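FIELD: query
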Amino acid sequence: MASTAVPTTAVETRSIDWIGLVPYVALHLSVFTVIWVGWSWTAVGVAVALYLIRMFSVTAFYHRYFSHRTFKTTRWFQFIAAIMGNSCVQRGPLWWAAHHRHHHHHSDQRPDIHSPRQDGFFWSHMGWFMTIENSRTNERLIRDLTRFPELRFLDRFHVIVPAILGIGLYWLGVLLENVAPGLGTNGWQMFVWGFCISTVVLYHAVYTINSLAHRIGGRRYETGDDSRNNFFLALITLGEGWHNNHHYYMSSTRQGVKWWEVDITFYVLTVLSWVGITKELRAFPRG
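FIELD: result
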């Protein structure tokens, strides 16, 4: 993906990529096909499982690892983490990390590309990535990542993993229809629930951290921006809702500071550290 300077004003980021929006809109519209494919506990269970796995992939890998480097891992697991992040259909790890680092450099200031203070709820929630300018990656912000050719490949061809996931879910449904008809599912039902519905719900849960987590909630720390802690958002995003804590000390693997601040992503990363997959998890400073 070509390198370009990060836009510094809202005016520069408003050239909507109408052609690029077609798959995004189609995915949202596909949710309504549930009227025809119906539902089954099997398909719903797969959708929930994929939501949780992919939410963890966004929060643990795209966010806490690639964007902030809050822990270390091996190169082979870094590649697996990037593949898991790709499955979330939120472009590649380099694109995601570059834009997120830019956000922290300018949080809620004029250059911030998704600030509700500057441009309103819709823009911060989803409008910002619909532009031609923001579809590019500023490689100056991710030089620590661009040295890995496998990450560059996944970033450039970020549609491969989602395509494999979607096709795989369809054929899983076909298989189950034939070998376990009592489960009541089929190819199209599994695709609609496991891929389409799960992905759309995942999208908007992740987006709330850019929009609602800068508008609704409490503030423990003075951070110079509008970041807030929100218990409900922390639940649906596996810990990302402790956003004020995160903006206060973005290098910490842990975002839920108090014992009652549920941070499932941190708990799982801790378990992975016990078996040597992750290591050197950065602690939140005392006080």
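FIELD: remark
The chain has one domain: 39-279.
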